[in-house]
Amino acid sequence: MKAIVNHSYGTPEVLELSEVDPPAIGDEQMLVRVHAAAVNPLDWHMLTGTPYLMRLTEGLRRPKRVARGVDMAGVVERVGADVTAFRTGDRVFGGARGAFAELVAVAAKDVVAVPEKLSFEEAAALPVAAVTALQGLRDQGGLRAGQSVLINGAAGGVGTYAVQIAKAMGADVTGVCSTGNVELVRSLGADRVIDYTVDDFTADGRRFDIFLDNIGNRSLADCRRVLAPTGVYVIVGAPKKGKLLGPLKRVLAAKVRFVLSRRRAAWFIASETPDELRALVAMTEDGKLRSVIDRRYPLTDTAEAIAYQAQGHARGKVIISVVDPVVDIVEP
Ligand SMILES: NC(=O)c1ccc[n+]([C@@H]2O[C@H](COP(=O)([O-])OP(=O)(O)OC[C@H]3O[C@@H](n4cnc5c(N)ncnc54)[C@H](OP(=O)(O)O)[C@@H]3O)[C@@H](O)[C@H]2O)c1
Predict the structure, then answer these.
(1) CATH number, domain at 113?
(2) Strand 29-39 to 71-79 pairing
(3) Domain with 253 in it
(4) Cα-to-centroid distance, 332 and ligand 1 (Å)
(5) What is the number of the ligand 1 atom nearest to the C-alpha of 181?
(6) pLDDT tens digits for 33-60?
């Protein structure tokens, strides 16, 4: 089968489309034929081996696990001896290491069924980005109906889901994005959209119960200033420049800055559970959540897809369309 691998850390040029053996499956696992996979900033981190801190687990000099991709949707090809929840032919989606491939091995307990009305691409887009949005708002922010939420980076993978999830949970939502994405963010349900090329979201005096920050481009003093007296600053993303510690430097600085305040700074690493995937599916079935797909690339062009996403201006999700690719025409 074909899979996207990198044997050394580097830029997208080190990615190879390789012919490899299909993964072996254990008794509680399944072999899934991948139809679509989603690109995430995590793929860039795994490819480049940055921040360096992650090399402690991923391999000091070269990646221990060479297959890239973490989100997929596809069709069960074979089930392990102890799998009872699924059978061959079922449509499933979830997190899966090595998702940029024709086949992937997953634990049956980690994936859920793709509902009839959802395409493989829409389902593959969900796991990392939508679960991050859900956990950031619900678990870290403690969001309750009627609260006000500010989402910086509202037009990206996490942001497009966060706007919709916050609305579905009854929040008053303000999104921040550039001019070309204002209408998109509004169409997702934002009550207010701030175009950062025109207005400064820290300067209009508005205060929020939760500030979900996917970008981390403002000073911590600015971030604190937009919070209500007991507000929570939820750090999701940070600029790529911290090569050693990544977002940790900002997280530690935020904890120190907020220590004597009733306001709180929170950081987390999202990890999806089947219950959360099912909750997201339910929201799509209720018409409260949709995946915004920016571009689709065939498996052969995964390096370009990762490079595009790493530029930081994807509009929703970037998808690798593996089976019968419907590929968008991309201007060079
Ligand atoms: N903590 C976790 O577990 C976790 C999980 C997932 C992701 N993350 C992190 O969260 C961050 C966001 O992830 P993502 O998947 O949403 O990334 P993404 O899809 O690449 O985000 C792209 C979006 O960022 C927006 N953006 C760029 N510069 C901006 C600015 N100055 N102000 C406001 N928006 C700006 C762009 O909108 P415009 O084009 O309109 O500028 C674009 O829509 C990344 O740093 C990622 O590593 C963390």
Answers:
(1) 3.90.180.10
(2) antiparallel
(3) 129-267
(4) 22
(5) 40
(6) 999 999 999 999 999 999 998 999 999 9
